[in-house]
Write a structure and sequence with these properties.
11 helices; six-stranded mixed sheet; alpha+beta; about 625 residues
Amino acid sequence: MNKKDELLELIQKPRNITRRNFLKGTGSLALFLSLPFDLRSVFAASPGASVIPDHITLTWSDNPATTQTIAWRTDTSVSTGLIQYAPLNGPASADTVTHWAHSVQTAVENLYSDLGEANLHAGMITGLTPGKKYAYRVGDGLNWSSAGTFTTQPAGIKKFTFLIFGDSQSGITDNPEYGPWKSNVHAAFAANPDARFFINVGDLTECGQYYTHWNHWYEGCQDIIRTIPAMPSQGNHETYNHGWLPPSGAVSEPYEYIEQFKLPQNGPQELRTQAYSWDYGNAHFTVIDSQYDEEVTAENGHVRFPGNDSTPANPLANPFLRAQAEWLEKDLKSTNKEWKIVIFHKTPYYNKATRANETLKAVFCPIIEKYHADVVLNGHDHGISRTYPIKGDVFQKTPGQGTVYYVTGRGGNKYYTDLSKKVWDQFFFDANDMPCYVVAQVNGTRLTLSAIKQDGSYIDTYTIDKTTGTDFPATVLPDRYLSPQVIIYGNNSGVEAGQAGADWYIPLDCLKVSYRNSSTGALYENGSYAGGKAAYSLLKPGDFSADSSQASFTYANTRYLFTVGSTTVGGSTKQLTKPARLQNGLVAITADDFYNLLGFSYRYDSSLNAVFLTK
């Protein structure tokens, strides 16, 4: 690489460069004057943009067979955007194109950020030939990107591959570390060069309104995202700010995400880009926004979705979830595609210790299961997990009878140390050793999902075959418990519930539930971790004390004392509705009192013979 090319590369990369260092690097006035742009614009655009297009992004906002949407960024001095493209024949590469047969003028809009302003250019090419490879470049007529390629969806295609990435965020707001994301996405694409597009299930970045994270995210995948379309779902971290608010003034609006990804505008009016759907081949994909806590609850003083609060008991109270539920029902009802795949960030069937999402589950899962979406793809928890087929919270024998909920691991740097296999998981892997990805292969009436580590090691492979009505590995439902077990946050507490008339009695010892995972030295085998040290418990070790007459513990900063035969609760002004009693030698209170006092809702699952507690 010569000196001039080195300087061009330096300017185009998203990093801070000073006038002094740049001028020192040029070495000569002749080289300085030969550069193909006005240097004033380089240093005027603090987000890292220049007159040379960067952040070039392929998406679809219409039919993948006949259209292609392309967006890119420049500094604010560039007010014109053009896409030039030409069909490629045979083995010809984009570099061989000397005549650009077609040109499309694009829209230009301001892109604001904490680092300053840039311009965002976006346009859609229409009238393309299905199954055709095209070369393209973007620019303003003077300053052009290098040539890239894209390929339209072949007509009638029923066999194709796509990639799925869990959270690609850095994990630390002040450290935009996207090297693991870069290595992972490149490993995935190198192993699957036939992938038609990729999905990121949310938390692309650590802090959505802290633009240095977007610069590094794009740097990690730039050569891939300009070759195959990205069809993402937004995560909660896309709503976070770093002291900078978007033009609307909203605290938790995912502004940078909405602006940069030009996606189908067929979702609910209030949530265009955040909820949308598209078809590829014989599959229908539906994306919904799960960030109720951030975009509604966390909005202090700027109410984007006015209304009552949504709760598990009244999940449609707020228009944020109500509008999506109404749209989701219409969307899934109207498709006749062989495969229905729903994508959203937060997990209705989770692996984190206590991070349940019961309101989202109450809103979305009944609709998803009513219209039998085959698979739901989630992120948020950073592990790989695959549930039994589920319908109405009941495990089903075959995927034809229920929906499989699949948590897609971690695509980047961040991992958790409090994940575990829950009772609803047929498979679980704690992906804390390295990033991973999922390869999805559609082949007519067969869908295969393969979870793969960055180094190429296989974690899990699962296939649904609609022709035979089977899956592989075949679903094997868990045995029904001989005595009613208390399941708290998806983990078996090891204590038995009791029943007296219509009342379930819950032994307080269930709060001592703990589990083991790989981060504490346990051994992994066949989707489970065994041995090692307990990784998490709801109560501090040794804090629970009990005998045949009393039980005492500290929970949520309150010291409670329960006495058998009494409705009085030490440490609380609340009274039990029925006296505490002994259940198999353990102090127990009714499930209703468990809810009124400690906030845990409950349900009894007759198929498992278990009482589920969560909050």
